[in-house]
Each structure stands twice: as C-alpha cells, then as structure tokens.
Amino acid sequence: MTFVVTENCIKCKYTDCVEVCPVDCFHVGPNFMVIDPDECIDCTLCVPECPAEAIFAEDDLPDDQLHFIALNAELSPLWPVLTEIIDAPEDADEWDGVKDKLKYLER
C-alpha cells in the first residue's frame, strides 16, 4: 500500500506534508504534487498535515479518485523531489474544495 495525492491538491499545492516526510517521496509539478509509490513507506505522517485533505491511503481512496494512483506513479519520475515547504499559490484557499479540477492539472 502507498499514499496517494488526489484531485483537491490541484491548484492548492500546500506543501505542509513535505516537511514531515521521512523519505522525501513528494514530487512537485506546476500546480500539483504527487507521491512516488516506490519511495513511500506508508508512515501516514503526511495525511494529517495536508490542509486540503488531499492525501489518502491507496486502500481508502474514494472511488472517484482511483485514477490518481496511476497519475501519481506516472508523474513522480518526471517531476523533481520537494523536501522543503514552499509557498502555496496565492489563490490556493479559493481552490480548496472545488470539484472536477483534473482539467486544470498542468504537467
């Protein structure tokens, strides 16, 4: 099992989760972050740190978010590792909770 970043992270990209990760498994893209499933050690530390509640255990993913398992695996080798907190986008709070954001994902 691994942890998965889901749709609510798109355009929010809070990075509180990165600071607590003991294995540096987060990768950052233009407006989304992913977890490398090969690096994640299932420690659960990131889940309570995510202000957008966008991180789930793979086994606990809502049905409409299952495609994010493959998306995290696909994008993690393409994006750089993030090990420090960076500022969230200025409009992150406005995007938190917005539905159907996948169309806004920048690769």
Domains counted in the coordinates: how many? Answer: 1
Percentage beta strand = 5-15%
Helix percentage: 10-25%
Spatial separation of the terminal alpha carbons: 25 Å
Q: Could you give a short account of the major beta sheet?
A: 2 strands, antiparallel
Structure, explained:
The chain is an alpha+beta fold. The chain has one domain (3-83): Alpha-Beta Plaits (2-Layer Sandwich), CATH 3.30.70.20. Helices cover 17% and strands 11% of the residues. The protein has three helices and four strands; from the N terminus they run βαβββαα. The chain has a two-stranded antiparallel ribbon. A two-stranded antiparallel ribbon has the order 2-3. It is globular and about 30 Å long. 32% of the residues are buried.
How would the blueprint of this fold be written?
Elements lengths: L2 E3 L10 H5 L5 E3 L4 E3 L19 E3 L9 H9 L16 H4 L12
Antiparallel strand pairs: 1-4, 2-3
Entry summary:
This protein has about 110 residues and is an alpha+beta fold.
Task: Provide tags for this entry.
alpha+beta, two-stranded antiparallel sheet, Alpha-Beta Plaits, 17% helix
